[in-house]
Amino acid sequence: MFQVADVYEEAKGISGFCDQEKLFRWITDAIQLIANKSDFDGWMGFVDLCVDGQCVTLPREVDNVLAVNIGGTPTLGRNQLFNFHLNGPGDCNEVIPYSYQDRGFFPTYKDIVDPVQLIAFVDKASDEGKELRVYGYDSNGHPVRQQVGGVWQDGYLIPTIYGLAVPDVDMPKFSRITRVRKANTDGVIRLSTLDDAGTSGIFLGVYEPDENEPWYRRIKLGKTATWVRLAYRKAAPTIKSLYDRVPLRSRMALLMAMSALKYYRETDLANATAYEVHATRMETEANDVVESPTSTPIQVIDFNNLQDKYDCDIV
Asked: How far apart are CA 7 and CA 153, in angstroms?
């Protein structure tokens, strides 16, 4: 692994950019170009999580779930269409016990149960008045919109007041949140519901300073558990400084990917593809030489008549 500073001058020479912000975007794209080829070592992560119930919203660095152990027991993974499988459990309240189902991405940690107003807790005085816009539907099922300067806009600006978490007097009650947009901040901003007593209810999200479009993967466990262990693919990094870590093993692979992007920009697909192939080869070889000499035994899974083996009464 290496830092952006280790390839900065060479990357600048390949791209021809002197503007640092633009160059960082190109380095980010080059990293993503290679990362899409395989689950390389630098993109793999493992984490233990304490959970409460069956629905688990995962940390922001989790891009894709590769495997899950529920309480230490291996499980089978299901996608979002599994509820429609003819041999599956359908939309029953319970599914196959030692399994997990991908539920996609969500902008909050939890869903809203009943229509509520929203409030924000601002940790630093310098973040007062910064944008925190929430999109969704009100208690009547209509899209939430707000009039700003005489112009109707989608979503609603949640008041961000340092030391005071209160809603606007005319804020509608949200029944569902579909998107959150936040400005860059100096500290974290916490989004919460406001209960009928006028105090904070359920924390919906704790958004870090560099989060602009919060988006978290969520899974549903086949049984209630207190902890899970995940193997996951990390989310792609956004390069913002010379000291950011590049999750690749080969410097030359990144530089080759930068050259591929240059030729893609010039619509020279032949050279672009050639550089992309070499970038992938170099990173693959760099990962192969450090791969430990282990093997994975064959797994046997019986998919026949799942509905006969499991039913909706399983606890």
From this structure: 43
